[in-house]
Every structure is written in C-alpha cells, then in structure tokens.
C-alpha cells in the first residue's frame, strides 16, 4: 500500500475499510453466474514468505472453447484493486504447482464453514420436527494480518484456498427460504392447538433464534450471491489450527449468535476434499459439511450452507495487503519457478492439446 501511494496518511481502520471497498467493487464487477469460479490461494513453507495466487476456472462444451473462455476471464481478473499488483503465470509447470501444491493427498485437511445449529422442535403444529439454522459470516473489514502471519509461521507447508462461484439463487430456493422465514417466525410466537381451546402453546426456543436468521438471509441472498468454499491443506498438523483462526476472523463466535466453524475433513472424504481444492470444485462432503446435524440436509439447505452475499464474500475473499512500517508478509518478486528437492526443474507434464497458450 505504501509503494503506490494508496491510502497514505489514513488511519489503519479507514485504510483497511477503503481497501475492502475496492475489493467489493472488483468482486461485483466480475459477478456472472456462467459457471466461472475464482480462487485466492495463500501458500507458505517454513522459512519462506507467503505467496498469493489468483486462479480462475471456466466451463465449456469442449477444450478449445473452455481454454479461450478462461484466458479471457484471466485477462479481466488481472485488473485488480489498486493496492494489488498482479502478474500472469506464463509457465505451465508453475501453474500446475500453484494448482496442485502437494504431490499427494496431504495429511492435514480442514474446511471453514458457516456454523449449523439444530434442535428438535417442541411444537407439533409444523411439517418438520428437526430445526436447522445457518449462521451468516461477518461482513466487516477485519484485519487478515494475524491469519497471514500464522500461515508464514506454520511449521509445515500449508495452503489456504478461498474459492468463490457467482450464483443466482433460483426462484424455488427463494420461495423455500421465504417459507422457512415465515414458518420459524410463526413458531417463535405463541400458538393455539385448535380454535376451540383457548390454551396457548408457548413459543419454540429454537424457532426464536432461527427466525431472525432466516429473515435476514431472505433479504441478503435475494440478489447477487456466491457459493463459497474455504479449504486448508498442510503436510503437517497446521491445517486445523489455521482454519480455526480463519473461522474466528470471518465470524467471531458469540453465544447465541452463530459464527463460522472449522472442521477437520473426515478421512473417508479426504480424496474428494483434495479434488475440490486441486480442481476448484465444491463437491458436497457429507460428514464434514453436515457438522452434527442428525439428519441429512436437503438440496436447498446444502446450497444455503455455502451461499453468501457480496459483503460476506468480500470479507472472506481478501486480497493481500501490507501496512507501512510493519514487517513484510508476502513474496512480491516473481519466483524463479518450481524445483524439486535436489534443485532441478521438474519434468514437464505431457502435452495437452487444449492447454492454454500463454
């Protein structure tokens, strides 16, 4: 921030707020629900600075069409907020190393999710017995420096990946969300068993907590949305502690107010979680994502579990920044390229007739 004159002379909180505003404009400008996805990937190894890579993905009916689409998207994404410098990766081997940071499924895998809470409802005058609520992420311009500093000090090679996919909620999803808001709102009020008896049924305690969450979600998610995946991977045991710190940054937990949650990936789902990260996918991980909810979630609930609005997406998708006068955290010079442990360049992967031509 100090090198290009952006935000010079401003208090730190205002400087961070203005940087966040610029990033929100950048995200909004690239919102297009055409199957695209973009990901910020922070990586560090012991003794090295943090490196940040911006990746993107586009679908297509065939290889040439997809390659052309993703190169056009990469060119558009390169117009970053003014406090960020972006340079294209023009070497296929370096791109492969950025996308597949480890040569096998790492020992440590964790995910950061919106917190799910649940309870068996006391009321019988409803169509469902199990109540489930989803806490939103925070939308504030909080400091990410503690997360990046913890990543730089991790005792093993570690990667944090924040992936967003623009999403336009279907009318059926919004209708279902409206039904939940109304139903939980009704259950949060005293009820009557039938018109004959005057005895009232007390409000359901869980519905009283869930009703405002669904009411707020209905307003927040009715416009432009993003499917969010936050994944951590490490060759050691640093993934889960870093995921917990990242969850506390996105949505600090307060009693009765939800918050984000860090979850270790179930061993049976490690291969799928690794495929999500290396391929920029979002395959549902049943045991990891469902948390402790005793029944499987429906298809609409699965979407709501990772759907965020623009402020929440911006809070999670933070570009790197450094504050003048503090130790630098990031490697800003171009790397010389990936090498093997003996210092030699790795063998190039086999030719792909549809590989991007940089």
UniProtKB/TrEMBL annotation:
Residues 337-347 have a biased composition (Low complexity). Residues 348-358 have a biased composition (Pro residues). Residues 328-358 are annotated as: Disordered. This is Uncharacterized protein. It comes from Streptomyces yunnanensis.
């Amino acid at each position: 921030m100090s090198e290009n004159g952006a935000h010079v002379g401003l208090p730190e909180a205002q400087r961070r707020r203005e940087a966040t505003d610029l990033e929100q404009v950048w995200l909004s400008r690239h919102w297009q629900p055409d199957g695209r996805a973009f990901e910020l990937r922070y990586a560090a190894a012991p003794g090295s600075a943090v490196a940040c890579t911006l990746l993107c993905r586009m679908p297509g009916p065939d290889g040439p069409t997809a390659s052309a689409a993703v190169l056009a998207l990469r060119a558009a994404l390169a117009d970053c907020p003014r406090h960020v410098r972006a340079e294209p990766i023009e070497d296929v081997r370096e791109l492969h190393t950025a996308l597949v940071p480890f040569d096998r499924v790492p020992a440590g895998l964790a995910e950061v999710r919106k917190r799910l809470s649940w309870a068996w409802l006391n009321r019988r005058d409803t169509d469902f017995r199990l109540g489930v609520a989803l806490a939103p992420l925070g939308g504030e311009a909080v400091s990410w420096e503690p997360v990046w500093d913890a990543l730089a000090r991790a005792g093993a090679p570690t990667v944090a990946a924040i992936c967003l996919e623009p999403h336009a909620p279907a009318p059926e999803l919004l209708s279902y969300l409206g039904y939940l808001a109304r139903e939980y709102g009704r259950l949060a009020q005293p009820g009557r068993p039938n018109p004959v008896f005057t005895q009232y049924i007390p409000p359901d305690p869980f519905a009283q907590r869930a009703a405002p969450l669904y009411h707020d979600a209905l307003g927040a998610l009715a416009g432009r949305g993003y499917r969010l995946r936050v994944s951590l991977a490490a060759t050691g045991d640093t993934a889960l502690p870093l995921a917990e710190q990242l969850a506390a940054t996105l949505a600090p937990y307060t009693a009765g107010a939800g918050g984000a949650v860090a979850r270790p990936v179930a061993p049976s789902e490690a291969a799928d979680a690794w495929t999500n990260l290396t391929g920029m996918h979002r395959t549902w991980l049943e045991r990891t994502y469902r948390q402790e909810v005793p029944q499987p979630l429906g298809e609409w609930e699965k979407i709501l579990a990772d759907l965020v609005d623009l402020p929440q997406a911006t809070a999670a998708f933070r570009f790197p920044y450094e504050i003048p006068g503090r130790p630098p955290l990031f490697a800003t010079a171009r790397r010389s390229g990936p090498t093997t442990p003996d210092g030699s360049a790795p063998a190039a992967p086999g030719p792909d007739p549809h590989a991007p031509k940089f």
